[in-house]
């Protein structure tokens, strides 16, 4: 199995790509703030999952990287709130993206609570 096969990775990657497409419509004056921040945090979720998978030999490192991923996921939710409040995305789109992000968070928490199911050797 490779990290790209993980459901949490697939769903977080898909969410990051949705955010990329939506953020292309954000105003130019948001380029170096909201647009960059939401793209960075949403992509970091998947990247940290990949890093955690590479640390499977070390249980504490595995969980630590997953907590990094979870933090980035929450940051993404915060940026989505700013985007919706600023009128850059519609409420229906916001709700859809938030629900996808919450699902990613649940998957991350499952991984943190059951590392042995992901090839981590627990004592």
Overview of this protein structure:
With 123 residues, the chain is an all-alpha fold. The protein has one domain: de novo design (two linked rop proteins), CATH 1.20.1440. The chain contains 4 helices and no strands. It has helices at residues 7-23, 31-54, 59-85, 91-113. The radius of gyration is 15 Å and the shape is elongated. The mean pLDDT is 96.
In short:
The chain has 123 residues and is mostly helical. The chain has 4 helices and no strands.
Features:
de novo design (two linked rop proteins); single chain; mainly alpha; 123 residues; 74% helix
User: The CATH topology, please?
Assistant: de novo design (two linked rop proteins)
Q: Order of helices and strands, N to C?
A: HHHH
Mean pLDDT: 96
Please identify the top-level CATH class: Mainly Alpha
List segments where confidence is low: pLDDT < 50 over at least 5 consecutive residues.
Answer: none
Counted beta strands: 0
Task: Report the radius of gyration as a whole number of Å.
Answer: 15 Å
Output the structural class: mainly alpha
List the helices and strands and how they pair.
Blueprint: H1 7-23, H2 31-54, H3 59-85, H4 91-113
Helix pairs in contact: 1-2, 1-4, 2-3, 3-4
């Amino acid at each position: 199995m490779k990290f790209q096969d993980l459901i949490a990775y697939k769903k977080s990657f898909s969410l990051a790509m949705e955010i990329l497409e939506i953020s292309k419509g954000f105003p130019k004056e948001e380029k170096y703030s909201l647009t960059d921040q939401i793209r960075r945090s949403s992509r970091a979720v998947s990247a940290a999952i990949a890093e955690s998978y590479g640390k499977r030999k070390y249980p504490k490192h595995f969980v630590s990287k997953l907590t990094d991923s979870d933090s980035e996921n929450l940051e993404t939710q915060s940026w989505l709130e700013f985007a919706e409040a600023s009128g850059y995305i519609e409420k229906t789109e916001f709700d859809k993206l938030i629900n996808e992000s919450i699902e990613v968070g649940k998957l991350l928490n499952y991984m943190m609570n059951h590392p042995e199911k992901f090839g981590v050797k627990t004592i």
